[in-house]
Amino acid sequence: MATLAIMHARVSQVVVDCRDPQSLVRFWAALLGGDPVDRARGWSHVEPPGIVRLAFQPVAEDKTVKNRLHLDIEVDAIEPAITHALRLGATRIGETVTDDQGAFQVMADPEGNEFCFVSADAASASTAPAP
Fold first, then answer.
1. Angle ∠(86,105,29) on CA atoms, nearest 5
2. What pLDDT score does 127 carry?
3. Per-residue b or e along 21-33, where b marks 16 or more CB atoms closer than 10 Å to that residue's CB
4. Summary mean pLDDT of the chain
5. Cα–Cα 20 to 30 A to 8, which of 45, 79, 112, 124?
């Protein structure tokens, strides 16, 4: 039986399609930390402390449907994170939900890309029970 070589791979960045990379990178840098970098061909990126680089590539079309992939951002307390994100231009989607894993709140960045604030401590948020 032949042995297959094991491929060593790692995620080097998560790429977000967007209309305005220079603006969106500044939102994410303000939310997560790191310095926004504008690159060639309209791309931008940020390297938030402790997570993979987030890159933003320009596309002609607006976002029209729900993301198939989103970031879960672990926070100590959900409500202060929501308040901060709203000040930066995010949108809250629905109510905070509590389940047996903790609490989460769905949010959208200024271009409508969904992300969640999550906390293992359900007491860290004003919560609605999970459906």
1. 45
2. 43
3. beebbbbbbbbbe
4. 90
5. 45
